[in-house]
Amino acid sequence: MIERPQKDIDIIAFLSEVVQRNTKNYQSDFQYDIDTLQKAAAASEAENRSLLWLSRPSGTWCFKERDVFLQNTAASQTWQFYGYQADEIKAYRVEVCGRQGDKVFGNVYPLNYREHLERVKKLSLPAVKADFLLPDGTTMTLTFDDFAADYRRMVSEHGAPLNSRYAPASEMRLTEIIRQEHKAELTGRKSHPKQRWRVKEVQMAGEKFYSVWDLDTFEPGKKIKIERTIFAENEAIGIAPYLNHSQAELIAALQESENSERAVLAKLQEVLAEWAEQAGQTILYRKTLEYKQTLPVSHTSNKWVESQYDLHEISNMVYAMSWRSEPFPQKRTKKQMKKRNKNKIK
Questions:
Q1: Torsion-angle region of residue 309: left (phi > 0), alpha (psi -120 to 50) or beta?
Q2: Whole-angstrom Cα distance, residue 69 to residue 214?
Q3: Which tens digit of pLDDT belongs to each residue from 83-108?
Q4: What is the pLDDT of residue 171?
Q5: Is 48 helix (H, G, I), strand (E, B) or coil?
Q6: Quick one: which H or E segment has residue 181?
Q7: Is the pTM of this model over 0.70?
Q8: Largest CA distance in the chain
Q9: Neighbour-count burial of 328, counting CB atoms closer than 10 A to its CB (0-12 exposed, 13-18 middle, 19+ buried)
Q10: CA 55, 56, 57 angle in degrees (round to 5)?
Q11: How does the average pLDDT of the chain come out, rounded?
């Protein structure tokens, strides 16, 4: 049975039912998830209220969604660990909206864990730093150059951190990945095998300059969708040659570049019109093949034939007619009606 998104519900009650049905051992793990959900309800940032939750036969896990899409984090490594038992996992994205007493309210979106796992593997970004809120109220930032050793040193000197935030090199790119995930939830991802997720990195002067988000869909004779989102990996890279130009020159160059983009769009639209004509031809071939593969109907070759129950039929490949003669009911005489009425009285 296909699960539907659940809106404005008691999240803890909903997930608790999933635990009862799906998690046979270590159901006590869910208490940690409840604490995470209640803390998320008090968070002001939307990124801290979007969580990923899973139930497995022996336990549960709950993580910030952004952390799952960041490589080298405990959340990402743990979420990807259970691929071997994907068929036994119930996974959801949880959007926390508020809290009333011990109840946490919000929206729950079901996930196909196996498919979501593949997207995480393809799209997750390396975490390059982490900010930690320490017990004394100070914040410390660690990079991933020697993260394990630096983290142990931080804990020994300051105590276990109260909160953490991992970050990639391009926050914009991570935001776009998560935005596309949420967009698919609203439009109803069908997980079509022809749908591809790809990020193309472009180099300039030997350095990574920008990336292009690619989400295309193609179904011959039915649908083609070209979708691209471009964003800078590092805004500082590549601008040095243009810094000597005046603002007026840059504005003129910007307008020219935008007009060139529109010209490319016009070419794409011409190509798409060509695709529409070819797709129409594909439909004709497909319909013709369906017709030829349809088994012929049985018929009488335009001859009247008599079958059982005195049924007369005539038919060919296009039409069919039939008739049957039945005796016309005779009208009762007055004598028969009188006899019938007497039998009724008896």
A1: left
A2: 17
A3: 999 999 999 999 999 998 889 999 99
A4: 86
A5: helix
A6: helix 171-187
A7: no
A8: 121
A9: exposed
A10: 130
A11: 85
Q: Are strands 139-143 and 125-133 parallel, antiparallel or unpaired?
A: antiparallel
What are residue 71's phi and psi, to 5 degrees? -65, 155
Here the contacts of 12-20 (C-beta below 8 Å, separation 24 or greater) are 12/37, 12/102, 12/103, 12/104, 13/103, 14/108, 15/53, 15/55, 15/92, 15/94, 15/108, 18/55, 18/90, 18/92, 19/55, 19/60
DSSP assignment of 280-341 equals: HHHHHHHHHHHHHHSPPPP--TT--EEEGGGEEEEE-SS-EEEEE--PPPPPPPHHHHHHHH
Query: Is the Cβ–Cβ distance between 123 and 199 less than 8 Å?
Result: yes
Q: What end-to-end distance do the CA atoms of the chain give, in Å?
A: 62
Task: For residue 262, give the amino acid letter.
Answer: R
Q: For residue 263, what is the enclosing H or E element?
A: helix 247-293
Tracing tokens 């004509």 back to the chain, one arrives at 277
Joined tokens for residue 78:
């743990």
Asked if residues 211 and 200 have their Cβ atoms less than 8 Å apart, the reply is: yes
Strands (E) across the chain are located at 6-10, 50-56, 59-64, 70-71, 90-100, 103-111, 125-133, 139-143, 163-168, 196-204, 207-219, 223-225, 228-232, 305-307, 311-315, 320-324
Q: What's the token pair of residue 300?
A: 């009488």
**Measured in whole angstroms, how far is the alpha carbon of residue 227 from the centre of its chain?**
15
- 130 near 140, Cβ under 8 Å? no
Handedness of CA 250, 253, 255, 258 (dihedral sign): negative
Evaluate whether 214 touches 198 at the Cβ level (below 8 Å).
yes
DSSP state at residue 25? B
Residues with Cβ within 8 Å of residue 231, at least 6 apart in sequence: 170, 172, 173, 176, 210, 211, 213
Secondary structure of residue 45 in the 3-state scheme = coil
Q: Read off the pLDDT of residues 126-154 as tens digits, 9 standing for 90 and up.
A: 999 999 999 998 899 999 888 889 999 99
Q: Which helix (H) or strand (E) holds 41?
A: helix 29-42
Contact between 29 and 63 (Cβ < 8 Å): no
